[in-house]
Design goal:
7-stranded parallel β-sheet; globular; 10 strands; TIM Barrel; disordered N terminus; alpha/beta; 40% helix; 246 residues
Length: 246
Protein backbone atom coordinates (compact mmCIF):
# COMPACT_ATOMS: atom_id res chain seq x y z
CA UNK A 1 0.00 0.00 0.00
CA UNK A 2 1.25 3.53 -0.74
CA UNK A 3 1.84 5.97 2.08
CA UNK A 4 1.00 9.66 1.83
CA UNK A 5 2.72 12.57 3.51
CA UNK A 6 1.02 15.86 4.29
CA UNK A 7 3.42 18.49 2.97
CA UNK A 8 1.97 21.32 5.06
CA UNK A 9 2.80 19.45 8.28
CA UNK A 10 6.27 18.56 7.03
CA UNK A 11 6.93 22.19 6.10
CA UNK A 12 5.96 23.44 9.54
CA UNK A 13 8.46 21.08 11.12
CA UNK A 14 11.18 22.08 8.66
CA UNK A 15 10.50 25.76 9.29
CA UNK A 16 11.07 25.32 13.01
CA UNK A 17 14.29 23.44 12.32
CA UNK A 18 15.57 25.94 9.73
CA UNK A 19 14.80 29.48 10.94
CA UNK A 20 17.57 30.91 8.73
CA UNK A 21 15.56 30.35 5.51
CA UNK A 22 12.79 32.39 3.93
CA UNK A 23 9.54 30.46 4.23
CA UNK A 24 7.35 33.44 3.36
CA UNK A 25 7.78 36.79 1.65
CA UNK A 26 9.24 39.66 3.68
CA UNK A 27 6.86 41.46 6.03
CA UNK A 28 6.01 44.35 3.71
CA UNK A 29 4.56 41.96 1.13
CA UNK A 30 2.40 40.17 3.67
CA UNK A 31 0.37 43.33 4.24
CA UNK A 32 -0.61 43.54 0.56
CA UNK A 33 -2.31 40.14 0.13
CA UNK A 34 0.56 39.11 -2.10
CA UNK A 35 2.01 35.66 -2.70
CA UNK A 36 4.93 34.37 -4.76
CA UNK A 37 4.93 31.54 -7.27
CA UNK A 38 8.12 29.48 -7.61
CA UNK A 39 8.93 26.50 -9.81
CA UNK A 40 11.72 24.00 -9.25
CA UNK A 41 13.86 21.63 -11.31
CA UNK A 42 13.79 23.31 -14.71
CA UNK A 43 14.50 24.17 -17.33
CA UNK A 44 13.04 21.37 -19.42
CA UNK A 45 12.39 21.14 -23.13
CA UNK A 46 8.67 20.42 -23.00
CA UNK A 47 7.23 21.03 -19.56
CA UNK A 48 8.89 24.37 -18.79
CA UNK A 49 7.96 25.73 -22.22
CA UNK A 50 4.31 24.90 -21.57
CA UNK A 51 4.48 26.50 -18.14
CA UNK A 52 5.96 29.66 -19.65
CA UNK A 53 3.12 29.78 -22.17
CA UNK A 54 0.58 29.63 -19.33
CA UNK A 55 2.35 32.26 -17.22
CA UNK A 56 2.29 34.58 -20.21
CA UNK A 57 -1.41 33.94 -20.79
CA UNK A 58 -2.17 34.47 -17.10
CA UNK A 59 0.06 37.59 -16.89
CA UNK A 60 1.96 36.16 -13.93
CA UNK A 61 5.64 36.22 -13.11
CA UNK A 62 7.47 33.54 -11.16
CA UNK A 63 10.90 32.61 -9.86
CA UNK A 64 12.46 29.46 -11.30
CA UNK A 65 14.94 27.56 -9.11
CA UNK A 66 16.98 25.83 -11.78
CA UNK A 67 19.50 23.00 -11.99
CA UNK A 68 22.85 23.57 -13.66
CA UNK A 69 22.89 20.40 -15.75
CA UNK A 70 19.50 21.31 -17.18
CA UNK A 71 20.63 24.87 -17.93
CA UNK A 72 23.38 23.33 -20.03
CA UNK A 73 20.92 20.97 -21.70
CA UNK A 74 18.18 23.57 -22.39
CA UNK A 75 19.78 27.04 -22.50
CA UNK A 76 17.14 28.47 -24.85
CA UNK A 77 14.39 27.69 -22.35
CA UNK A 78 16.36 29.37 -19.56
CA UNK A 79 16.88 32.45 -21.72
CA UNK A 80 13.17 32.60 -22.44
CA UNK A 81 12.46 32.58 -18.68
CA UNK A 82 14.69 35.61 -18.28
CA UNK A 83 13.43 37.41 -21.39
CA UNK A 84 9.84 37.14 -20.14
CA UNK A 85 10.64 38.77 -16.82
CA UNK A 86 10.92 35.77 -14.50
CA UNK A 87 13.58 35.42 -11.83
CA UNK A 88 16.26 32.72 -11.90
CA UNK A 89 17.52 31.21 -8.65
CA UNK A 90 19.91 28.42 -7.67
CA UNK A 91 18.81 24.82 -7.03
CA UNK A 92 22.13 23.01 -7.40
CA UNK A 93 24.36 21.81 -10.23
CA UNK A 94 22.30 18.61 -10.21
CA UNK A 95 19.41 17.46 -8.03
CA UNK A 96 21.73 15.95 -5.45
CA UNK A 97 21.13 16.20 -1.73
CA UNK A 98 23.38 18.97 -0.36
CA UNK A 99 23.68 17.19 2.98
CA UNK A 100 25.44 14.15 1.50
CA UNK A 101 29.24 14.00 1.88
CA UNK A 102 29.38 11.80 -1.22
CA UNK A 103 28.16 14.44 -3.67
CA UNK A 104 31.09 16.83 -3.36
CA UNK A 105 31.71 20.10 -1.45
CA UNK A 106 28.66 22.32 -1.46
CA UNK A 107 30.82 25.36 -2.26
CA UNK A 108 31.95 23.80 -5.54
CA UNK A 109 28.44 22.71 -6.42
CA UNK A 110 26.85 26.09 -5.72
CA UNK A 111 29.54 27.94 -7.66
CA UNK A 112 29.10 25.50 -10.53
CA UNK A 113 25.34 26.10 -10.51
CA UNK A 114 25.83 29.86 -10.78
CA UNK A 115 28.43 29.49 -13.55
CA UNK A 116 26.08 27.22 -15.49
CA UNK A 117 23.22 29.71 -15.17
CA UNK A 118 25.34 32.69 -16.19
CA UNK A 119 26.89 30.84 -19.12
CA UNK A 120 23.49 29.82 -20.46
CA UNK A 121 21.97 33.29 -20.01
CA UNK A 122 24.87 35.45 -21.13
CA UNK A 123 25.93 38.63 -19.30
CA UNK A 124 22.97 40.85 -20.19
CA UNK A 125 20.22 38.41 -19.26
CA UNK A 126 22.11 37.24 -16.18
CA UNK A 127 22.26 40.82 -14.95
CA UNK A 128 18.52 41.15 -15.52
CA UNK A 129 17.24 37.84 -14.17
CA UNK A 130 19.73 36.10 -11.87
CA UNK A 131 18.82 36.24 -8.18
CA UNK A 132 21.24 35.28 -5.38
CA UNK A 133 18.63 32.94 -3.90
CA UNK A 134 19.20 29.25 -3.25
CA UNK A 135 16.62 26.53 -2.67
CA UNK A 136 18.36 23.32 -1.57
CA UNK A 137 17.13 20.11 -3.21
CA UNK A 138 14.58 18.42 -0.94
CA UNK A 139 14.84 21.46 1.36
CA UNK A 140 17.72 19.78 3.24
CA UNK A 141 20.56 21.91 4.60
CA UNK A 142 22.62 21.79 7.78
CA UNK A 143 22.91 24.84 10.04
CA UNK A 144 26.67 25.13 9.48
CA UNK A 145 26.33 25.08 5.71
CA UNK A 146 23.38 27.45 5.82
CA UNK A 147 25.42 29.98 7.79
CA UNK A 148 28.28 29.73 5.29
CA UNK A 149 25.94 30.10 2.30
CA UNK A 150 24.35 33.19 3.84
CA UNK A 151 27.82 34.60 4.61
CA UNK A 152 28.66 34.09 0.93
CA UNK A 153 25.83 36.47 0.00
CA UNK A 154 23.07 34.02 -0.83
CA UNK A 155 19.54 33.96 0.59
CA UNK A 156 18.07 30.52 1.33
CA UNK A 157 14.47 30.26 0.16
CA UNK A 158 12.11 27.41 0.93
CA UNK A 159 8.32 27.66 0.71
CA UNK A 160 5.16 27.76 2.80
CA UNK A 161 2.90 25.91 0.33
CA UNK A 162 4.09 22.68 -1.27
CA UNK A 163 0.90 21.16 -2.62
CA UNK A 164 1.96 17.85 -4.13
CA UNK A 165 1.65 14.35 -2.69
CA UNK A 166 4.49 11.91 -2.14
CA UNK A 167 3.41 8.35 -2.87
CA UNK A 168 5.86 5.73 -1.61
CA UNK A 169 5.79 2.27 -3.14
CA UNK A 170 8.35 -0.44 -2.35
CA UNK A 171 11.53 0.78 -4.01
CA UNK A 172 9.99 3.81 -5.70
CA UNK A 173 8.89 7.32 -4.76
CA UNK A 174 6.72 9.49 -6.96
CA UNK A 175 5.90 13.14 -6.40
CA UNK A 176 2.48 13.80 -7.91
CA UNK A 177 1.05 17.22 -8.71
CA UNK A 178 -2.47 16.61 -9.97
CA UNK A 179 -4.20 19.78 -11.07
CA UNK A 180 -7.43 19.56 -9.07
CA UNK A 181 -5.75 18.41 -5.85
CA UNK A 182 -3.01 21.04 -6.08
CA UNK A 183 -5.50 23.84 -6.71
CA UNK A 184 -7.63 22.74 -3.77
CA UNK A 185 -4.64 22.54 -1.42
CA UNK A 186 -3.33 25.95 -2.50
CA UNK A 187 -6.77 27.44 -1.93
CA UNK A 188 -6.93 25.87 1.54
CA UNK A 189 -3.40 26.91 2.55
CA UNK A 190 -3.29 30.42 1.08
CA UNK A 191 -2.02 33.14 3.41
CA UNK A 192 -0.44 36.57 3.19
CA UNK A 193 3.14 36.32 1.96
CA UNK A 194 2.89 32.68 0.92
CA UNK A 195 5.66 31.20 -1.22
CA UNK A 196 4.15 28.48 -3.41
CA UNK A 197 6.43 25.77 -4.83
CA UNK A 198 5.55 23.75 -7.92
CA UNK A 199 7.74 21.84 -10.39
CA UNK A 200 8.47 22.06 -14.10
CA UNK A 201 11.35 19.65 -14.67
CA UNK A 202 12.12 15.99 -15.02
CA UNK A 203 15.37 14.16 -14.33
CA UNK A 204 17.79 13.81 -17.22
CA UNK A 205 18.22 10.31 -18.68
CA UNK A 206 21.85 10.07 -17.59
CA UNK A 207 20.75 10.39 -13.95
CA UNK A 208 17.95 7.85 -14.10
CA UNK A 209 19.85 5.24 -12.09
CA UNK A 210 21.81 7.53 -9.78
CA UNK A 211 21.43 6.75 -6.06
CA UNK A 212 21.80 10.47 -5.31
CA UNK A 213 19.38 11.98 -7.83
CA UNK A 214 16.06 11.09 -6.28
CA UNK A 215 14.20 13.91 -7.96
CA UNK A 216 11.02 11.91 -8.33
CA UNK A 217 9.43 10.72 -11.53
CA UNK A 218 7.32 13.83 -11.57
CA UNK A 219 3.83 13.83 -13.01
CA UNK A 220 4.72 16.71 -15.32
CA UNK A 221 2.13 16.11 -18.03
CA UNK A 222 -0.24 18.30 -16.00
CA UNK A 223 2.35 20.91 -15.04
CA UNK A 224 1.09 23.72 -17.25
CA UNK A 225 -2.58 23.29 -16.40
CA UNK A 226 -1.66 23.03 -12.73
CA UNK A 227 0.09 26.40 -12.93
CA UNK A 228 -2.97 27.86 -14.67
CA UNK A 229 -5.29 26.52 -11.98
CA UNK A 230 -3.07 27.90 -9.21
CA UNK A 231 -2.96 31.34 -10.84
CA UNK A 232 -6.74 31.44 -10.97
CA UNK A 233 -7.29 30.09 -7.46
CA UNK A 234 -4.93 32.71 -6.04
CA UNK A 235 -6.70 35.58 -7.78
CA UNK A 236 -10.19 34.30 -7.05
CA UNK A 237 -9.25 34.30 -3.36
CA UNK A 238 -8.40 38.00 -3.56
CA UNK A 239 -4.62 37.65 -3.65
CA UNK A 240 -2.17 38.88 -6.25
CA UNK A 241 1.26 37.70 -7.27
CA UNK A 242 4.24 39.65 -6.06
CA UNK A 243 6.11 38.96 -9.29
CA UNK A 244 9.50 37.32 -9.04
CA UNK A 245 10.97 37.10 -5.55
CA UNK A 246 12.08 40.53 -4.29
Amino acid sequence: MPSFTTPSLVLRGMELAQPWAWWRLPEEYRDRRQVALTLDDGPSEVFARRVLDVLKEEDAQATFFVLGDRCEAFPAVLRRMAEEGHGIGLHGDTHLDFTSDETGPWQDRLRANERQIRAALGPELAEKAFLPYFRPPFGHLSRDWAEEIIAAGKTIVNCSILPGTLVTWPGKSNWIEETDKVAARVKHDLHHGAIIALHCGKQLPEHANSPYVNCGIFNMEQAAETVRAVCRVVREAGYEFSGRLP
